[in-house]
Specification:
alpha+beta, 2 domains, nine-stranded mixed β-sheet, two-stranded antiparallel sheet, 9 helices
Length: 364
């Protein structure tokens, strides 16, 4: 009997890590114009059945020579967002995964910026108000292939829950029992030997590769949704700060004169249009996913909404939009009152001129 055969490491697992990166690169992307660009290679997309057609993205290939072998998806969204997905297989102990995880995240973050910049340069002329970039968002999925012949799910959790929890929080040391328990509370599973843990910036899936891939689009979309809400929040903050710091230009005199007011640039109307644009896109993003009849996906998506603070961002935006509406009403009342005073003054001037002319005629 040969006793020199290598022993299987019980802590050794294989799986895949997915890195989701999203960038805001402008106000709008003209897909029709983009399709005429010879240098842009359009790629086919398979849209999950639970996605509506409000914002069907456009798939493209990375421009040469900036091809990244780990990049498996590049999607453009008409509202000015770019999403990249990277796939990295691994075969390691979970201890080593935790040790190297932060470095992997940093490396793919740097790579995503390089790739996104090359895409931006290629499609810049098809973007309305292009800018690289104001806001970005990222998310990571760590997938482990189950090995029931090695240990079952209960044994896996008992042995590795602390490592998983600390990895999801980018920590290299074991977290407290309270923190670990809080993170693991979000664990769900469709089959008895599968688990998915959703956290704020990283998710963990102990699932067979044929099962977890259906949720990749869900994770990518949630990351896009967070990106847009962060961008809206930032934009509203910038506009509100102008009011707070009294940087909004005063309305020109012509803005108070009937008929001529339509020819004058009105910052309040611009702010109102921004409010409409944000409300429409935010509403459509919320309604893009239709999960009726899909209770498992609905549960996962609700966890993503909670963990990615989507509701918090949405509430903050609604509050700022309400402030903008109040500001609009205040400025509108002020403008209306000034126009009425201006009109009254013009009437008085006309009456005065008429009296002067009449008096001059009388004296002659």
């Amino acid at each position: 009997m040969n006793t020199n055969l290598p022993k299987t490491n019980p802590d050794h697992f294989s799986g895949t890590i997915y890195f989701f990166h999203a960038f805001d690169i402008g106000e709008d992307i003209n897909f029709n114009k983009l399709r005429t660009f010879e240098e842009v290679s359009i790629t086919p997309l398979t849209i999950p059945k639970y996605f509506k057609n409000y914002h069907t993205p456009l798939g493209i290939a990375l421009p040469h020579p900036h091809t990244s072998p780990r990049c498996v998806s590049v999607k453009l969204h008409s509202f000015g967002a770019l999403s990249l997905v990277y796939k990295m297989p691994y075969s390691e102990t979970l201890h080593n995964v935790r040790k190297d995880f932060n470095e992997w995240v940093d490396n793919f973050e740097e790579q995503s910026i390089l790739d996104a910049k090359s895409i931006f340069k290629q499609i810049e002329s098809a973007i309305s108000k292009p800018k690289f970039f104001e806001t970005r968002s990222s998310y990571v999925l760590i997938q482990v292939n189950p090995e029931p012949e090695k240990l079952d799910l209960k044994e896996f959790q008992a042995r590795y829950n602390h490592i998983i929890a600390s990895t999801l929080r980018f920590e290299t040391e074991i977290l407290s029992e309270d923190q670990t328990k809080e993170i693991l509370e979000s664990a769900v599973g469709y089959f008895k030997d599968e688990r998915i843990i959703i956290d704020t910036d990283v998710a963990f899936a102990y699932e067979d590769p044929t099962g977890y891939e259906e949720i990749l689009d869900l994770l990518e979309f949630a990351n896009i949704q967070r990106l847009e809400l962060q961008y809206f929040d930032r934009t509203l903050d910038q506009q509100l700060n102008k009011f707070y710091e009294r940087q909004i230009k005063k309305l020109p005199l012509t803005a108070y004169i009937p008929l001529l007011s339509a020819l004058s640039p009105n910052p309040i109307e611009i702010l109102g249009q921004l409010k409409v644009d944000i409300s429409v896109i935010a509403e459509r993003l919320e309604n893009t996913i239709k999960l009726s009849g899909e209770p498992y996906f609905a549960e996962l998506y609700n966890l993503l909404i909670e963990k990615l603070d989507i509701i918090t961002w949405r509430t903050a935006i609604d509050r700022k939009l309400a402030i903008i509406e109040d500001i609009q009403m205040m400025y509108q009342h002020k403008t209306d009152a000034t126009r009425e005073d201006t009109l009254s003054l013009l009437v008085i001037i006309l009456i005065f001129i008429e009296l002067v002319i009449g008096l001059l005629n009388y004296l002659q």
